[in-house]
Design goal:
Organism: Virgibacillus indicus
Helix content: 10-25%
Strand order of the largest sheet: 1-2-3
Pfam family, one: CsrA
Order of helices and strands: EEEH
Largest sheet: 3 strands, antiparallel
InterPro entries: CsrA, CsrA_sf
Strand content: 25-35%
Radius of gyration: 14 Å
Protein name: Carbon storage regulator
GO molecular function, one term: RNA binding
Number of helices: 1
Distance between the termini: 25 Å
Amino acid sequence: MALTLGRKPGEKIYIVDSQGREIEIEVVKREEKLSNFTQLRISAPSEYQIIRGEIYEGSNSN
């Protein structure tokens, strides 16, 4: 399943699992000078690992 959204600074997205645990993703700010750059704040329970895509994809390549 995939979902594509547009969000403005201060807006949030929540991901909730079947046990009610939630991951909160908030758009923190967008650099006007760098139009392709957005900062996110991710809050999740400690049992979840938060891994940047380039690191995760690199660790899974064989």
